UniProtKB/TrEMBL annotation:
Residues of the full protein shown: 245 to 598 of 598
Keyword DNA-binding assigned: no
Organism: Halomicrobium mukohataei (strain ATCC 700874 / DSM 12286 / JCM 9738 / NCIMB 13541)
Domain spans labelled SIS: 37-176, 205-344
Function comment: Catalyzes the first step in hexosamine metabolism, converting fructose-6P into glucosamine-6P using glutamine as a nitrogen source.
Oligomeric form and interacting partners: Homodimer.
Claim: Transferase is one of the keywords in the record: yes
Keywords for the protein's UniProt record, in alphabetical order: Aminotransferase, Cytoplasm, Glutamine amidotransferase, Repeat, Transferase
Lineage: Archaea, Methanobacteriati, Methanobacteriota, Stenosarchaea group, Halobacteria
Molecular function GO terms recorded: carbohydrate derivative binding; glutamine-fructose-6-phosphate transaminase (isomerizing) activity
Record's catalysed reaction(s): D-fructose 6-phosphate + L-glutamine = D-glucosamine 6-phosphate + L-glutamate
Active-site feature positions: K349
EC number: 2.6.1.16
Protein name: Glutamine--fructose-6-phosphate aminotransferase [isomerizing]
Length: 354
C-alpha cells in the first residue's frame, strides 16, 4: 500500500535505500558472491551482450560501461533491434536479458533468438518465476521488491547495483576488478541514495521549470545512460517533451533547440568533466538555463543556474545518485502539472506484445 505517499512512484523512489540493501545483502564480503548463479554460468564468458528495453536498456548501457572500464568487452542492445538484426553469434559471449518484470515480449524474443544461436543466456530480473527467469540458462535476481508504478525507479538502481556486482565478479577472474574500495562504495550506496531522497533539493527546481517548452539532459560516460533515463522518466509521466543526449553530440544538432525556455540538466559523473562544463557554457551562452547534477565540488556547479549535489562516492556510482535527483524531478514536475503519475496514458507496466 502507498502509506503516507500520494503515489506508488514517490513511495518507490523513497524505498530505494532499502531496495539496494536487499540487492546487496550477502553479496559483498571478501569478494563478490553471487550465490544465485550456478558455478558454471560464468565459465568461459569473455564478453557480455545485454538485451533490454526502456529503463532496463539504460541500466544495461550503464552496466556495459562498468564492464568495459574493467577490460571486459560488453555491448547493450535494444531488444527489438537485436531481433531485427541479430549480431553474429560468437563463442564466449553471454547474452544477458535485463528485465524488471521478466515478461517483456521484445526482451524475451531477443533471448530466444540468442538461445536459437546456442548462446548462453542469463536473466537479470526482479521477478522470481518470470518467463525470463525460467527460460534463460540461469537467473540473477535484483531483489528490489515489488514495483507498482508504471515508471521504473527503484528497479533501475537495483539493476545497476546488480550489474556492478556482475562486472566485479567477471573482472576479478582477470585481476581487473576494482576490489575492496569499490565494494565499500557499493555498500555505502544505500546511504548515498538516502541523502539524495531526503534532501529533495529538486522540488524547487521542478517548480521553477514546470512551464518549460522542453527538458534536455546531457552527460558523458555513465552520465549518458543517466541522461537518457532522466528524459524517459520525465516524458513518461509529465507528457512534456524531454530528450537525453551524449553531451558531445549537442553541437551536432540538438543545440539548435536550446532557448531560455529549455532547461538543460548537465550530469557530471567524473567522465571528461571539463568537456561537460564547456558544453554547459555553450548552452548558457545561447540563453539556455543549466542545472548541474553532480558532486558538490563539480566544476559544473559554478557554471550553472542551479546545482543538484550528489554525495561523494566512487565515480562509477555517481550516476546512480544523480539519477535519483532526476526521478524526483520527473515526479515533482508531474505533480505540479497534476498528471496521473502511477498510470500514465497509453502505457502499461509490463509490455507483453512485440
Ligand atoms: O519489465 P522490463 O524491465 O523488461 O520493462 C522494460 C520497459 O518496458 C520499462 O523499463 C519501461 O521503459 C518503464 N515504464 C520506464 O519507466
Amino acid at each position: 500500500e502507498k502509506g503516507r505517499y500520494d503515489h506508488y512512484m514517490h513511495k518507490e523512489i523513497h524505498e530505494q535505500p532499502r531496495a539496494l540493501e536487499q540487492t546487496l545483502q550477502g553479496r559483498l564480503g571478501d569478494g563478490v558472491a553471487l550465490d544465485d548463479l550456478a558455478d558454471e554460468t560464468l565459465d568461459g564468458v569473455e564478453r557480455v551482450a545485454f538485451v533490454a528495453c526502456g529503463t532496463s536498456y539504460h541500466a544495461s548501457l550503464y552496466g556495459a560501461r562498468l564492464l568495459i572500464e574493467r577490460g571486459v568487452p560488453a555491448s547493450a542492445h535494444l531488444a527489438s533491434e537485436y531481433v531485427t538484426a541479430p549480431p553474429p553469434a560468437r563463442a564466449g559471449t553471454i547474452v544477458v536479458g535485463v528485465t524488471q518484470s521478466g515478461e517483456t515480449a521484445d526482451t524475451l524474443a531477443a533471448l530466444r533468438e540468442a538461445h536459437s544461436q546456442d548462446q548462453p543466456t542469463l536473466a537479470v530480473t526482479n521477478t522470481v518465476g518470470s518467463t525470463a527467469a525460467r527460460e534463460c540458462d540461469d537467473a540473477l535476481f535484483i531483489r528490489a521488491g515489488p514495483e507498482i508504478g508504471v515508471a521504473a525507479t527503484k528497479t533501475f538502481s537495483s539493476q545497476v547495483a546488480t550489474l556492478a556486482l556482475l562486472a566485479e565478479q567477471l573482472a576479478a577472474r582477470e585481476g581487473t576488478g576494482r576490489g575492496r574500495p569499490f565494494r565499500r562504495a557499493l555498500a555505502a550506496l544505500p546511504d548515498g541514495v538516502r541523502t539524495v531522497v531526503e534532501s529533495d533539493d529538486v522540488r524547487s527546481v521542478a517548480r521553477q521549470f514546470r512551464d518549460s517548452d522542453a527538458y534536455f539532459f546531457v552527460g558523458r560516460g555513465t552520465g549518458h545512460p543517466v541522461a537518457l533515463e532522466g528524459a524517459l522518466k520525465l516524458k513518461e509521466i509529465t507528457y512534456e517533451h524531454a530528450e537525453g543526449f551524449a553531451a558531445g553530440e549537442l553541437k551536432h544538432g540538438p543545440l539548435a533547440l536550446v532557448t531560455e525556455r529549455t532547461p538543460v540538466f548537465a550530469i557530471d559523473t567524473g567522465h571528461n568533466t571539463e568537456k561537460v562544463a564547456s558544453n554547459a557554457e555553450e548552452i548558457r551562452s545561447r540563453g539556455g538555463p543549466v542545472v548541474a547534477v553532480g558532486p558538490a565540488d563539480s566544476p559544473l556547479g559554478d557554471r550553472a543556474d542551479a546545482h543538484l549535489p550528489v554525495p561523494d562516492t566512487d565515480p562509477a556510482l555517481t550516476g546512480v545518485l544523480a539519477n535519483v535527483h532526476l526521478q524526483l524531478l520527473a515526479y515533482h514536475v508531474a505533480a505540479e502539472l497534476d498528471r496521473p503519475i502511477d498510470k500514465p496514458r497509453n502505457l502499461a507496466k509490463s509490455v507483453t506484445v512485440e
